[in-house]
């Protein structure tokens, strides 16, 4: 459903949030290793998240990535998805056709509208805090 970049971005943001709740910054290499993503690809994803104000980046020997603890509950899954994939998931055709809208619907257009609305609601109503604290077995979930 989400692009690979978005999947890595969600996992990376959750990892950074968990570490930030323990007042720890994490390095690019550590994040890439934790989410099982190539370092260069992870760097591009993290740049996008930082540009959208979701994560903070600090350069230097004591640098790394973190999220202000006060922001963790305010960040939604929708913000993370939007920062990486934009709104394509909400606007594209369910079958991937170039021309599909209410006036020229594809065979699943009307069914997909409801699914899309439910997805949008879930993304808007799921906080990063909820995701980060919902990992009851630990961070090993992120590599799946």
Give an account of the 3D structure.
- The chain has 144 residues and is mainly alpha-helical.
- It has a single domain, classed as Orthogonal Bundle (Arc Repressor Mutant, subunit A), CATH 1.10.10.
- The chain is 53% helix and 4% strand.
- The chain contains eight helices and two strands.
- Strand 1 and strand 2 form a beta hairpin.
- InterPro entries: TR_Rrf2-type_CS (IPR030489), Tscrpt_reg_Rrf2 (IPR000944), WH-like_DNA-bd_sf (IPR036388), WH_DNA-bd_sf (IPR036390).
Distance between the termini: 15 Å
Instruction: Return the CATH architecture.
Output: Orthogonal Bundle
CATH class: Mainly Alpha
Under CATH, the topology can be stated as Arc Repressor Mutant, subunit A
User: How are the strands of the largest sheet arranged?
Assistant: 1-2
- C-alpha Rg (nearest Å): 17 Å
In the residues, how many domains can be counted?
1
Structural shape:
elongated
Mean pLDDT: 89
Number of helices: 8
Low-confidence stretches: none
Report the strand count: 2
Name the helix and strand elements from N-terminus to C-terminus, one letter apiece. Answer: HHHEEHHHHH
Strand composition percent: under 5%
Helix content: 40-55%
Topology:
Blueprint: H1 4-20, H2 28-35, H3 39-51, E1 56-58, E2 64-66, H4 69-72, H5 77-85, H6 88-91, H7 109-124, H8 128-133
Antiparallel strand pairs: 1-2
């Amino acid at each position: 459903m989400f692009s690979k970049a978005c999947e890595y971005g969600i996992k990376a943001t959750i990892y950074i949030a968990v570490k930030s709740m323990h007042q720890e910054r994490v390095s690019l290499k550590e994040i890439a290793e934790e989410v099982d993503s190539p370092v260069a690809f992870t760097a591009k994803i993290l740049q996008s998240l930082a540009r959208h104000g979701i994560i903070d980046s600090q350069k230097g020997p004591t640098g790394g990535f973190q999220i202000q603890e006060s922001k963790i509950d305010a960040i939604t899954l929708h913000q993370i998805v939007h920062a990486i994939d934009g709104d394509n998931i909400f606007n594209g055709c369910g079958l991937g056709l170039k021309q599909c809208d209410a006036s020229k619907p594809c065979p699943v257009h009307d069914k997909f509208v409801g699914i899309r609305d439910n997805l949008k609601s879930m993304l808007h109503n799921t906080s990063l805090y909820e995701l980060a604290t919902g990992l009851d077995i630990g961070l090993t979930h992120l590599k799946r």
